[in-house]
Write a structure and sequence with these properties.
The structure holds 2 protein chains of 2 kinds.
Chain A: H1 5-22, H2 46-60, H3 66-70, H4 75-79, H5 83-91
Helix pairs in contact in A: 1-2, 1-5
Chain B: E1 2-6, E2 9-16, E3 21-25, H1 34-37, H2 41-44, E4 49-53, H3 70-80, E5 88-93, H4 95-106, E6 111-117, H5 125-129, H6 140-143, H7 146-153, H8 157-171, H9 175-181, H10 187-190, E7 197-202, H11 208-217, E8 221-226, H12 232-235, H13 237-249
Parallel strand pairs in B: 3-4, 3-5, 5-6, 6-7, 7-8
Antiparallel strand pairs in B: 1-2, 2-4
Helix pairs in contact in B: 3-4
Classes of the chains: A mainly alpha, B alpha/beta.
């Protein structure tokens, strides 16, 4: 699947920040795709996911209101979040 | 992401929202500021400036070898909120609630409203209820709750990292000894707390008698029981969040 340039750019930023938070061994199984799950596939710890959110907030600024987004979600939805969910959220606000 | 040097320890902290200040404290071992970040904090942040931090030894904060008693951790909190207005609201879960309570005893004038979620009393019972901590390095895995043991046996990343954290806290710090040495709190000790206090406990939690005692012995406290166990922010996220929002929205000193 070929991604449009804007989506590809956000995906690249998310992957770079995931590596900053969790180390580059996190991508040993392969590069991040839109289908990659933060919990089931990457197995990020919850505190690492917070660190990722903080870095995304710093990168994209206040218009990407990650905490407001999370506040509307149930725990099982948060646990099931994929890279694609996050990229779609960011794309709609940038 | 920000870090603050507080009481000689580098603490990870983050602030959500804007409004009157609330500081939220998580529980020990598997807790971190993520415990609140993914549960009640985002809803509270609609009306409050919610400050979260990783307790010493937890999350992204430093893991010093000692200082896990509630008095030292209350001093961490005092340093962490040195820049906030005179009066703040405190919300704590489990041992984090005991730290909030220790702060409220030491600095009653600084706490406007207090919420104690599943605070264990006597504090030393916390160590006993986590038997794997006392099993010793060679037996810790065998003593873990079954779900956790299976996950770690599967060699997955989250489980391996959690085990490394538990081992470090149990065997490289004084956390366990500090827990066991933590004195119980009687009515005289609790009399210093002037803030209107909400005690929230799970109907299936072994900590529930502690909630009944706190509600009876704190000068201005009430007890709420929610369906769930010790980890109420997970078991009853929406109901707990609604209670927090309501208690912290009430005006005045009670």
């Amino acid at each position: 699947m070929t991604l449009d340039p804007a989506t590809a750019a956000i995906l690249a930023t998310v992957e770079r920040l995931v590596i900053e938070v969790a180390g580059d061994e996190i991508t040993l199984a392969g590069p991040l795709t839109l289908a990659t799950s933060f919990n089931a596939d990457l197995e990020l710890e919850s505190i690492e996911f917070v660190a990722l959110a903080e870095k995304l907030q710093a990168h994209y600024g206040a218009q990407v209101d990650f905490v407001g987004w999370i506040s509307t979600k149930q725990l099982d939805e948060i646990i099931a979040l994929t890279v694609g969910d996050l990229v779609t959220f960011i794309a709609a606000r940038t | 992401m920000s870090f603050l040097e507080a009481n000689g320890v580098r603490l990870h902290t983050t602030e959500l929202g804007a409004g009157p200040p609330v500081v939220m404290l998580h529980g020990l071992l598997i807790g971190s500021l993520a415990s609140w970040y993914f549960t009640a904090a985002p809803a509270l942040a609609r009306t409050h400036a919610v400050r979260l931090y990783d307790l010493r030894g937890h999350g992204l904060s430093d893991r010093p070898a000692d200082g896990y008693d509630t008095a030292t951790m209350a001093a961490d909190l005092a340093a962490l909120i040195g820049d906030l207005p005179d009066r703040v609201d405190l919300v704590g879960h489990s041992y984090g609630a005991l730290v909030a309570l220790a702060f409220a005893r030491a600095h009653p004038a600084r706490v406007r409203r207090l919420v104690l979620v599943e605070a264990p009393l006597p504090p030393a019972t916390f160590a006993d209820e986590h038997g794997f901590l006392t099993a010793g390095p060679d037996h810790m895995i065998a003593a873990l709750p079954p779900g956790l043991r299976e996950a770690i046996a599967g060699g997955r990343r989250q489980a391996a990292r959690l085990l490394a954290t538990l081992r470090a806290l149990a065997y490289e710090t004084t956390l366990l000894a500090d827990l066991r040495a933590e004195p119980d709190l009687d009515a005289a000790a609790l009399a210093a707390v002037t803030a209107p206090t909400l005690c929230v406990y799970g109907d299936r939690s072994s900590c529930r008698p502690a909630g009944e005692r706190l509600a009876a012995q704190l000068p201005d406290a009430r007890l709420a029981i929610l369906p769930g166990g010790h980890y109420l922010h997970l078991d009853a996220k929406d109901a707990l969040t609604a209670l927090l929002v309501a208690h912290l929205a009430e005006h005045g000193d009670g």
